[in-house]
Specification:
With about 160 residues, the chain is an alpha/beta fold. It has six helices and six strands.
Length: about 160
């Protein structure tokens, strides 16, 4: 089984990214997946936007988990982006978002998607994790925080 920690390798973590709106955020992630996995960037952006139109994937406390299903994809992929400036994201607490875990999953990934989302919500919901990521100066530090908090069972803060 794939874990959040194994999905977020050093080359999938981007800090102080120059994204200032949803479109730029989705485009950055899609370009990464196009480069690393040959996926169609325009289609990824379109699917992320479609999912966001169903309801915001922002969780509150400055974090969001945008995600989309992709036909033909064989494995779940992730990108972690910490934006240089907060991005308006229609969060339930009306606060903008700086920490994003973006996921693309195979089109038929029912249980895997639910497991990844549950793990993401659990990890991103921990105040200490969000603070560690906010203060991180390298992808190594973010990766270590993801690994640490993926293995710790804590309630949302």
């Amino acid at each position: 089984m794939t874990t959040l920690a194994s999905l977020c390798s050093m080359d999938t973590i981007f800090l102080n990214a120059p994204v200032f709106n949803r479109q730029q955020l989705f485009t950055m992630a899609a370009r990464h997946w196009r480069h690393s996995h040959g996926l169609p960037a325009d289609e990824i952006v379109r699917r992320l936007e479609q999912r966001e139109q169903l309801g915001s994937t922002a969780l509150g406390s400055g974090v969001a988990v945008p995600h989309a299903r992709m036909p033909g994809l064989q494995e779940t992929l992730a990108v972690f982006i910490r934006a240089a400036r907060p991005v308006p994201f229609n969060a339930p607490d009306d606060k903008p978002v700086t920490q994003f875990l973006l996921l693309v999953v195979p089109e038929q990934a029912g249980k895997d998607l639910l497991q990844r989302l549950a793990e993401a919500v659990r990890v991103l919901g921990v105040r200490e994790f969000r603070e560690a990521v906010r203060q991180a100066v390298s992808a190594i530090e973010v990766s270590q925080a993801i690994r640490h908090y993926s293995g710790v069972s804590l309630s949302l803060c």
